[in-house]
Amino acid sequence: MRNGPFFVNDTLVFKYEMPADNSTRPHSVYQLPDLRSFLRCDVSKGKMLANWTDGGGEGFEFVMDKWQPYFFACGEANGIHCNMGKMKFFVIPFLRRWNF
């Protein structure tokens, strides 16, 4: 597992287990449009990238193909995991020397 630094055109891999029973909530991956949505865990303005089944096995891949901030959150149950502070993060990829 690589924790950074991350660069433009790097691939993020999201892996998460499907719920085994009704006692746990599923996960999903939303890309949020801006810092405000990220801080408020407002997934209503986000784009779903992966549902609760996409994170199993090899996981879901996302390529950061632009030099910009990327905001991600779990969007299940209107962002409950995000609101708990457990499943949200952002990445600002660096430019490689050859991008200049």
From TrEMBL:
Boundaries of every Phytocyanin domain copy: 1-95
Xref: Gene3D superfamilies: Cupredoxins - blue copper proteins
Superkingdom of origin organism: Eukaryota
InterPro entries, A to Z: Cupredoxin (IPR008972), Phytocyanin_dom (IPR003245)
Molecular-function GO terms, alphabetical: electron transfer activity
Record's protein name: Phytocyanin domain-containing protein
Organism: Linum tenue
